[in-house]
Every structure is written in C-alpha cells, then in structure tokens.
Amino acid sequence: MATKTARADRVTATREAILTTAERLFAEHGVYAVSNRQISEAAGQGNTAAVGYHFGTKADLVRAIVRKHTAEMERIRDRMVAETGDSDDPRDWIACIVRPATEHLAALGNPTWFARFSAQVTTDPALRDIIADDALSSPSMVRTLDGLKRCLPKLPAEVRAERSAMMRQLMVHMNAERERALADGTPTPRKNWHDAATGLIDAVLGLWMAPVTTAR
Question: Where are the alpha helices (DSSP H) in 85-127?
C-alpha cells in the first residue's frame, strides 16, 4: 500500500510539474512554438516522452491546464452569482464574468502565466474552442449570461454577437497585458487586480450600452 501511495504521489508531482512548466512556456512563446521535449526537459523529466505519456496530445495538455484554473474560477463565480440573485443591473452580471479571473490571478501571486496562456490559446484557431467550451458550459456562466441578456437593451442579433466577441477579446487581452507588466516589473494603470477588474467592468458596460449606428 505504501509503495502504491508513493508511486501515486510521484505521478501527481510529475503531472503538476508538467502542467506548470507547459503553462509558462506556452504563455511566453506560444503553444506550437514549444515542443513536448522542451516541456519535459524544463520540467526536469528525464523521459522526454513524459508529456505524451501523462497527457496525450497537445490539445489534451492545453485542456488540462485550462481545467486546472477554471475549477477555482467557477467556485468564485458560483459565490458571486448567488450574491447577485435576480439583479436587474447589468454591471452586477458583468462583474460575474470579469472578477472570477482577476480574483484567481490575484490569489496566485506574481508571477502568473494563465492570462498570457489564455491569450495565446484564444488566438489559435485549433485551440480557442477549448477555453470557450469549458467556460460557456458551466451552470454559473449560463446563469450569468442569461442575467446579463435580461438586463441589456434590445440589440440586433449581429450587434449582440459582435459585442460579445469584443467583450471576450477585451477581457482576455487586458488581463494578459497586466500580467505581462507585473511579470516584467513595469508600471500598470491600476494598482491591483481588483481595481483593474473595476476598470474592465466599466469598459465592458460602456461597450454594451453604446448606441447602435444605423447602416447608411
């Protein structure tokens, strides 16, 4: 029994080392610029096939990194959605979209890599659905998006789709820019992640409430 427990602990430690290393390398260099061999070596694994052995394909590895973080973000969103109740203020629902990620990043300390990793993945046509599928399928996100939709002014379908895409891009890349600045030790517009989220919520709210210009 002790031998089995020790082996399970080693496997867990190996998987965690690979996940952490892959997240950092993907964030810094891009997903397809980094080979499984490079990840294995940087993670201190003598077996250069360790990544494939433990995770399978590169898409499977990316999915495992995403799920490592989304579990905690979902816990935060669940709490926020419960506190929001049946609010008819769109700002409350936008906060439920924005703050889980920023609270999670703040709790991780500095440096972090998940925001930059997410930016790399969401710009890759072969991988971007991994993040979207995980996020949009969660019960708390479904309720959040329903609550936001209920509070927004009536918009043409194409405008709603366009602004949804703008919101995603703004969130992903602003978080990545702040994370990069913190890692590099360069100035940031806001002093902490909470204030950065407040500014982002303001911007997203303004985006949704902006007038719609009729095509001419």
Answer: 90-108, 114-122
The residue type found at 199 is G
**Whole-angstrom distance, CA of residue 14 vs CA of residue 78:** 31
**In the structure encoding, which two tokens stand for residue 118, read together?**
């997410």
**Residue range 31-81, pLDDT digits in tens:** 989 999 999 999 888 777 889 889 999 999 999 999 999 999 999 999 999
C-alpha span between 60 and 188 (Å, rounded)? 34
Nearest to 40 by CA among 59, 57, 53: 53
Contact 94, 67 (CB under 8 A): no
pTM: 0.91
Binned at pLDDT 50, 70 and 90, residue 15 comes out as very high
Give percent of the chain with pLDDT exceeding 70.
97
Which DSSP symbol is given to 46?
Answer: S
Each residue of 33-51: b (16+ CB within 10 Å) or e?
Answer: ebebebbbebbebeeeebb
Distance between CA atoms of 125 and 32, rounded to whole angstroms?
12
32 neighbors 65 (Cβ within 8 angstroms)? no
The answer to whether 31 and 38 are in contact (CB under 8 A) is: no
